[in-house]
Amino acid sequence: MSVELRMFNCATKMDDSNNHHHANDMSLGSLTVGMMVGGYMWGYLADQRGRRKVLVVSLTVNGLFGGLASMAPWFWLFLLLRFISGIGVGGSIPVIFSYFSEFMPRLRRGAMISALATFWMAGNILAAGLAWLVIPRTWAHFSLGTLDFQSWRLFVVLCSVPSISSAVLFKFLMPESPKFLMEAGREKEAILVFRQMFDLNMKGIEKDFPEFALRTNSKQQGEIEEIRSQDKKRTFPISVLKQGLLPIKQMFSGSVKARSFVLLIIFYCISFGYYGLWMWFPELFARVESSGGSPCANVSLPSPLNNQSCYPVKTAVYMEGFVIAASNLPGNIFTILIMDSTGGKTLLSCSLIMSSLSVFLIYMVQTKAQSLGLSCIFSGVSVIAWNALDVVGTELYPTQLRSSALGFFTGVGRVAAIMGNVAFGKMVDSNCTVPILLVSALLLTGGLMALLLPQTRQTELT
User: Fold this and answer.
1) How many CB atoms lie within 10 A of CB 172?
2) For residue 302, is the peptide bond before it cis, meaning its omega torsion is within 30 degrees of 0?
3) With left for phi above 0 and alpha for psi between -120 and 50, is residue 268 left, alpha or beta?
4) For residues 56 and 170, is the Cβ–Cβ distance under 8 A?
């Protein structure tokens, strides 16, 4: 994203260094705010209307408006399109974990969700490799009227292709979650999905589809039908808002109240800590190169726009991004192998505590190679926590709340990420030690709070 924004700044003649930094902040902020809004909105709709429908629409929104952003001739329009694209991203992330988990057998669910989370790493590697191949190429540069189409715009278009293709895949090939259909009282549709799964798994084996009865949630079915009937009668926005916030009320009451408060703290701590430090790693490591020593040295760094041309782009940026993305592989493999035997709660707590301790390695960094190594260590350890959080989040809530809860906590995480980025930026020049200690303390707090969660390893989804 930072490279993409630098290219946009060049194309729009944003030569002032302050404008450059504000452009990066605003673009990342617009995307993050969009993800914050979309997370709960799509999660709520997925619990009411179905996972598959919401995935198709949210992926389409992400891909369509992400692609349109590449054609934006004005920065304000670019921000608006990125915001709308972020709404789509915010919906697809929590809903896909609900959808996927509801197909998995309980004995292998943790490993399979961890395997799904591994594709986040795969996407990062693909994006870094694609940027490496596309953005430095000067041949992808031509003018369309007032639009200066440079290589970064082509990169943005290509990055929108997976979302569009995934939306098509879900629309025509993937069934609705049978767990959702059962909870919604749609027995016949659920049986059809089970038959499809049976035929696929038993292909080439002579075996008849077994006769069985489904135990559906008639209460949930009645609630959904009541909500749909109210939707037709409802005319006042306050009534719509009240109904939309009902899942949050349910999350913080009854038997799931305690776990919701614990998860709220964990999501805030990990998002504030991880993104607060992660977004400022390049700045701290640039100070290492400039000062030849401490990353907390208060040195004046040259503006990237005033001291280097936009083209050619330094390919070291993409190489480093590629290496850091690939450093998640050991952590991903580790979680796949031991998630079902150890449980998400234990892994979440241990990895957050280890991430907290790894932050202090920043004071040992003296060279660029060491800074890259620290980035890989922090990323590789942190990914275990993120994978464990994905597993735990899906297992702690019943089907009728699962997507709403994941969407809500994802939104909380986006708020914390913005706050962490801003807070780190405000404090890094006055006293670099304070934000680093703050990040470490928050990650440690999250790790200790995880011990309060119930053990959900290999339990049946409700």
Assistant:
1) 8
2) no
3) alpha
4) yes
